[in-house]
Amino acid sequence: MTKRLHRYPEEFRRQMIDLVRSGRTPEELSREFDPSAQAIRNWVAAAGSEDGASGDWSEDERRELREARAKIRRLEEEVEILKKAAVWFAREAGRTESR
Questions:
Q1: In whole angstroms, what separates CA 80 from the centre of its chain?
Q2: φ, ψ at 24 (rounded to 5°)
Q3: DSSP one-letter code for 4
Q4: Tens digit of each residue's pLDDT (9 = 90 or more) over 4-15
Q5: Which of 31, 82, 84, 91 to pair with 48, CA 20 to 30 A apart?
Q6: What are phi and psi of 58, to 5 degrees?
């Protein structure tokens, strides 16, 4: 039995490439959408060579950018947690004053 390959529309591939370039990892996108992480990496690599982007940055610069984007995502998540905690503490403070 042959394995049927999925053909994804070009627009879908372009959206996945843009999401990776904006900081999302192929693994995250693979969990959220259907294509494998390796397929997404292949699309990004192919787009990079077509765009000429692969020669613009060194591997160290690309690694540093990935790390910076991951750190930004983590910090944004922490800010959201702190906002929720501030709301919770404000509610608790209001309850203790009214007692």
A1: 17
A2: -75, 150
A3: P
A4: 566 889 999 999
A5: 31
A6: -80, 165
Asked if 26 and 20 count as a contact pair (C-beta separation under 8 A), the reply is: yes
Q: What is the pLDDT of residue 40?
A: 93
Report d(CA 31, CA 16) in Å as an integer: 12
Output the CA angle 72-23-12, nearest 5 degrees. Answer: 150
Nearest C-alpha neighbor of 65 from the set 47, 77, 53: 53
Amino acid letter for position 19? L
pLDDT in tens, 32-78: 988 999 999 999 998 876 655 555 678 888 899 999 999 999 999 99
Q: In the predicted model, what is the mean pLDDT of residues 77-84?
A: 98
Angle at which helices 37-51 and 10-21 pack, to 10 degrees? 90
Domain extent listing, the chain: 8-56, 58-99
